[in-house]
Design brief:
The chain has 1249 residues and is an alpha+beta fold.
């Protein structure tokens, strides 16, 4: 359930646990609260307004203006206090306070006419105990009649006789105290009910405490009992964020309020009858105002001074003291106008007069007469009640989010107007009537009581129907107010409403007591919880509170989506904790809170998706990424269709690139949108991803509209945490704060190490796992082909002792034998002076000659680093060993990562390994193409590698462990690496050095702490860098080249006659998804007879595709599926459909946006570099300066790199283009104008124009 407006709760009530919640305190809610409390049921009464004492009610026009609140949602107008007595939303004026409408009505209590009780819509079950319930309500409200006939009653009695057909004057019974008169007191005691002073101000609230409103009887009798704490069935939303829970909810918010609550609950998935809002009645009301009468009506209320001057019998009396019923079917009552009411409202532009032409002018003249001492003319209010058709309709407009209604038809309206005109003529006044037919003071229906859901919203007990079946009800949900009454009653309905509430409360109390007897405090409710989740989210207001509005727009799953949030941040006033939180890095509680609002996602649901439970944290800390700040959102959404959705999102703030991405990161929310599966459902659930952004305008609105007593503190804390992330870059936690345990409970499968000695004394190794076949695999007729794993550059990716589901274990469980290889550039036994010629001269022959030699050493760690000839040695030795074990006809599945992928492509396309021995090829973040991110491209283009080689000197092996000793060159290079830019920082020094040289190879949030520690402290202890110059040439070329930079491989696509799978990370770090896109396109074009697949896995970067905690769920299944298909295909070379070159050229990479990360940073860096060169060489002569710059650029860049230069001056541009083209640099010259030939130049004044 959800209440539209905010409801004030007493602080001592917040946090309690209630059996029942009553919404509203009018004649219905007060009766229900009283009867349940008397029976020992713990009740929470929710009331929008405050408690009004007698002296608080307005007694003049000035005071009543401070007691009125006006809201117009269409115009955006709001003025007046939120706890005002009269609330107007441009549709209807309602009373707001403890006691509801009983505070400001006339208190007329008349029994329900027989005609209403014989209506076909009237529930027959009510007649069983109606008289008994009516007597109970009469006694509780202390209904009385006045023995004095006041002036207005006398005048109306005289003029009404003969004007109505068969006119009957009935005595008026009121819930007003008419005991022996006592002199007025300036300070009446609130503990007692005083006597009526006949002041005539009842309709503005009795200022003398003489009215028996419900706060004086039913509510004062409500005694809270002790409750039990358990899971509750219902949530009642106090606003869009806060809620409380209960097993029983009683809606008594009035006709418009209760109907609106149910409409809004229906929009959040509550099943309700289609008749909701139908059967609305205005009780046949027609209001009029008679002014300018010379008759002694005494139709204005009196102030305290006038009470002492006028005898009791000459006073106006209670608001209504005369009632005349016509045989035509309607009743006319006269009412006193309270002194506080501004009379001009009744004579303004929203009325018409009879006789016509007197509207506003008459009121002004009347006021002038009073001002000069001539006195006011007499005026009264006329109210006609009857029986309309009860066919009105209440609706909630979805566009304006506003309640509205169509009034019912009233066949007696013309006769009522004629009666008003006759009375006005007799009184000698002017008749003012509303221009709107819907003007009424007695609203009924909207949630009509009926026998089933086809005829109404509730049954005779007030239980709300569940339309799943006609007679089924929502357990614990009741309606108990005027909205139950299914038809007009023809007279003042207050007693009728109280009687219906007494009837419903009898069954309500009985149901609650039976339910409490059936369950214990430790057992959850049996009935289905209408809203997922339990508990309360109300928090004490004794602290800092901030209310925030935020709007985000974007695309989810390629479809437009808009999120409108209202967030509430709250914390205790613990200012001393601010410094503590700053130093230890803990997020401040004021940066966490609850969220409400709605989501517009028309592609999924045509109506709004309302947030029924939302959480958000603006400073989330992850031990894996201590420098990174996250802002997390989690929203539980409810749709009108009954479906539930979860929208989760996070903003990721990395302190990289000198905070150049701060704006984008703080305003971009990466979201996932999932549909919650109902219990027992087998339907396919939604799983969409996308981005939402906050525009600058919306962000400005967000800060301008901040509310609460903690606004300044919240802004200070938010800026403080962003400064810590982006500017100071202080980690909030360190890896040393966390105890790393071995996350793998399973022992690792045993393996053997085969060593192969080369002619020059070096050893290359391969580790072999034999398949421990399970009984299911033993039954297979076909033996699965072995798998060869090729690591990336100096990083273990497959054999991970800390991970329970690494790729080696996964492949062994699948039934394959696994081979993992390493060479002379392995960190544990690296060859410092190994050259490409040495590897080609010694390693390749040794691999073939020593294939039969076996050495076992199970304690070695396996890594591999590739250069071109090194690859040849590696491939021949590896394949020779596998073919020697499995036979020469065996085919091998190859899984390669990064540099390993480059190596296998060089081996195949260079003719060193035949494709006939390859069953399938799976590459992660590598292929024959190698496209880098912007940051990695800058590193490779700048002369960092040559400088690093010079710093290292003769020893090209860099020790990474912090305690390891090294030369001064090693220490200098590690020191420089610590300060090189990267995407993500780490508190581990070894990880910082490694990422400084390479760039980040994985997103830390994807890797377990145990894996992180093993990788940096035990695995990657040394970094052989002798292959970096060759790797730099490949990176700058964008595809595989030989050691001299020549394209010797892409020209041989015929050697790639194999099935391929290329996998890229969707959140690029080093290699962009363009690498796999170009390779897949290349293979489809040149090898159409084989199966070629490509996958981009969202959320992964580079090596975390294989070493991540979730790799076995999101990456490995793709590799296994590809291998299985290759096993099934075998030697089947059935022709496949060939993709045309034109079709491949038309297509574009759908993941290209990932590769554009940081592209503009690259462009800025190039421009800055060119400007720096100009400054350094400016003292030189212009021609010589341009020559030097161009030669320097040609030396820095690879001859095959595509360089787009923006040449901004004619001479310098020509020189630069010339010199770079001469050395083989591909140049694009941009010139604003066209090329001019000799004959094109102007030769006279006409042509030059």
């Amino acid at each position: 359930m959800e209440k539209q407006a905010e409801i004030e709760l007493r602080p001592e009530d917040r946090g309690d646990d209630y059996d029942a919640i009553v919404v509203g305190s009018g004649y219905g809610g007060s009766v229900a609260a009283c009867r349940m409390s008397t029976a020992g049921i713990k009740v929470c009464l929710l009331e929008k307004g405050r408690r009004w004492k007698a002296e608080d009610f307005p007694t003049d026009s000035r005071k009543i203006m401070s007691a009125v609140r006006y809201e117009n949602q269409n115009l955006g107008l709001r003025f007046g206090p939120e706890d005002a007595l009269f609330q107007n939303d441009s549709l209807a004026a309602v009373a707001c306070g403890l006691g509801g409408g009983s505070l400001v009505n006339a208190g007329v209590m008349l029994p329900t006419p027989i005609r209403a009780r014989r209506n076909l819509k009237w529930p027959k079950e009510w007649e069983r105990d109606w008289d008994l319930c009516e007597s109970s309500a009469t006694a509780m409200l202390r209904i009385q009649s006045s023995s004095v006939k006041f002036p207005i009653a006398k005048v109306m009695g005289e003029i009404a006789e003969g004007e109505f057909e068969e006119n009957i004057e009935s005595s008026v019974k009121l819930s007003v105290n008419f005991d022996v008169e006592e002199p007025p007191s300036n300070s009446p005691k609130l503990e007692q009910i005083n006597n009526c002073f006949a002041c005539g101000n009842c309709l503005a609230g009795c200022p003398y405490n003489a009215k028996n409103s419900t706060d004086k009887n039913y509510l004062i009798s409500a005694i809270q009992a002790c409750g039990i704490s358990r899971k509750r069935r219902w949530r009642v939303y106090i606003n869009e964020i806060d809620y409380i829970t209960s097993d029983w909810v009683i809606l008594s918010a009035g006709v418009l309020g209760t109907t609106e609550i149910l409409f809004r609950s229906q929009m959040r998935g509550l099943r309700l009858s289609d008749t909701l809002g139908s059967g609305f009645s205005c009780n046949g009301n027609t209001l009029a105002y008679v002014a300018g009468s010379p008759a002694p009506l005494n139709g204005y209320g009196l102030n305290r001074k006038q009470l002492s001057e006028i005898p009791f019998q000459d006073r106006p009396g209670p608001s209504i003291s005369s009632s005349h019923t016509s045989s035509l079917g309607f009743t006319i009552q006269s009412a006193i106008l309270p002194r506080a009411y501004p009379y001009l409202l009744f004579e303004g532009i929203t009325t018409y007069t009879w006789p016509p032409g007197y509207q506003l002018f008459h009121g002004i003249v009347d006021r002038l007469k009073h001002f000069i001492g001539l006195g006011l003319s007499q005026s009264i209010i006329l109210n006609a009640m009857g029986y309309d058709e009860s066919n009105g309709k209440i609706m909630l407009e979805k566009d304006t989010d506003k309640i509205c209604f169509h009034p019912p038809q009233d066949p007696l309206l013309p006769r009522k107007i004629m009666a008003f005109q006759k009375l006005t003529k007799k009184l000698g006044g002017i008749l003012f009537m509303s221009r709107y037919r819907s003007t009424a003071v007695h609203l009924l229906g909207g949630c009509n009581a009926s026998s089933d859901s086809l005829g109404g919203v509730c049954n005779h007990k007030g239980q709300v129907f569940d339309p799943k079946t006609p007679a089924t009800v929502h357990a614990g949900l009741y309606v108990c107010d005027a909205s139950l009454i299914p038809c007009s009653v023809g007279i003042n309905p207050s007693l009728t409403i109280a009687t219906a509430a007494e009837h419903a409360s009898r069954y309500l109390v009985q149901d609650i007591l039976e339910y409490k007897n059936k369950i214990s405090a430790s057992v959850a409710a049996v009935d289905q919880n209408q809203f997922s989740g339990t508990g309360k989210n109300l928090e004490n207001d004794n602290g800092s509170t901030v209310l925030i509005k935020e709007t985000m727009r974007g695309y989810v799953g390629g479809m437009p989506c808009t999120v409108h949030l209202k967030m509430k941040m709250q914390s205790q006033n613990l200012k001393s904790s601010d410094k503590r939180n700053w130093f230890i890095g803990e997020p401040h509680p004021l940066l966490r809170g609850k969220a409400g609002g709605y989501v517009v996602f028309r592609a999924i649901e045509k109506d709004r998706l309302h947030v029924i439970d939302g959480e958000m944290d603006l400073c989330v800390v992850d031990c894996r990424t201590p420098y990174t700040q996250y802002m997390r959102y989690r929203l539980l959404l409810a749709a009108a269709s009954g479906s539930r959705y979860i929208l989760e999102g996070k903003k990721i703030m990395n302190p990289c690139h000198f905070a150049l991405y701060a704006w984008r990161e703080t305003t971009t929310l990466y979201v996932t949108f999932n549909k919650v599966a109902p219990s027992g459902s087998t339907d396919t659930m939604l799983n969409l991803k996308g981005e939402l952004r906050v525009s600058f305008t919306e962000l400005l609105k967000c800060f301008i509209t901040l509310k609460g007593n903690g606004r300044g503190r919240f802004i200070h804390l938010l800026i403080q945490t962003l400064m810590r992330t982006y500017i100071l870059q202080i980690p909030r936690v360190t890896h040393e704060n966390f105890i790393v345990t071995d996350s793998c409970d399973k022992s690792y499968p045993s393996s053997t190490i085969d060593d192969i000695r080369t002619a020059d004394g070096y050893i290359i190794r391969s580790r072999h796992w034999k398949n421990a076949r399970n009984p299911l695999l033993l039954s297979r007729e076909k033996v699965l082909n072995p798998i060869l794993l090729l690591n990336g550059y100096s990083t273990e990716s497959y054999w991970l002792p800390t991970e329970p589901h690494d790729l080696v274990r996964t492949l062994l469980e699948e039934g394959h034998e696994v081979w993992l290889l390493q060479t002379r550039l392995h960190p544990q036994n690296p060859a410092n002076n190994a050259t490409i010629a040495d590897i080609g001269k010694y390693d390749i022959p040794a691999g073939m000659e020593n294939a039969n030699e076996h050495y076992t050493n199970v304690d070695s760690y396996l890594f591999i680093t590739f250069s071109i000839e090194h690859l040849l040695t590696f491939m021949f030795s590896a394949f020779g060993k596998i073919l020697e074990v499995h036979g020469p006809s065996t085919k091998i599945h190859v899984v390669a990562h990064c540099a390993g992928g480059l190596a296998i492509h060089i081996a195949l396309m260079g003719g060193h390994v035949s494709a006939t021995h390859i069953a399938s090829l799976s590459c992660t973040n590598s292929s024959m193409f190698f496209r880098l991110t912007a940051l990695a491209t800058i590193k490779m283009c700048l002369p960092l590698v040559p400088i690093s080689m010079a710093i290292l000197g003769k020893n090209k092996i860099l020790p990474l462990l912090g305690k390891s000793k090294g030369s001064s060159g090693h220490r200098l290079l590690k020191y420089i690496a610590l300060y090189l830019p990267r995407y993500e920082r780490c508190t581990c020094k070894e990880c910082e050095v490694f990422s400084g040289i390479f760039g980040n190879t994985f997103w830390h949030e994807n890797v377990s702490p145990a894996m992180h520690q093993w990788l940096n402290k035990q695995s990657s202890t040394k970094l052989p860098m002798s292959a970096f110059p060759h790797l730099r040439r490949i990176c700058n070329s964008g595809y595989i080249v030989d050691s001299n930079g020549n394209n010797s491989f892409l020209i041989h696509p015929e050697r790639m006659a194999i099935s391929t799978l290329y996998i890229s990370g969707g959140r690029s770090l080093l290699v962009t998804p363009e690498t796999s896109y170009l390779a897949n396109k290349y293979m489809k074009l040149h090898q159409p007879g084989f199966r070629h697949e490509r996958a981009v896995v969202d959320g992964f970067g580079h090596s975390d595709l294989l070493i991540g905690e979730k790799s076995h769920e999101k990456v490995f299944p793709r590799i296994i599926s590809h291998i299985r298909l290759a096993e099934q295909e075998g030697n089947d070379l059935t022709p496949r459909k060939k993709d045309s070159k034109e079709a491949l050229d038309w297509g574009d990479d759908p993941y290209r946006e990932y590769g554009d990360f940081g592209f503009w940073i690259f462009a800025l860096a190039i421009i800055f570099f060119l400007l720096l060169l100009h400054v350094l060489f400016w003292p030189l002569k212009p021609s010589f300066r341009n020559e030097v710059i161009c030669h320097f650029m040609a030396a820095v860049y690879s001859p095959t790199v595509l360089l787009t230069c923006f040449l901004l001056c004619s001479v310098s541009g020509s020189v630069a283009a010339c010199r770079m083209s001469i050395v083989g640099v591909k140049v694009r010259l941009l010139e604003k104008s066209r090329r001019w030939k000799a004959q094109d130049f102007p030769t006279d004044s006409w042509e030059i124009m």
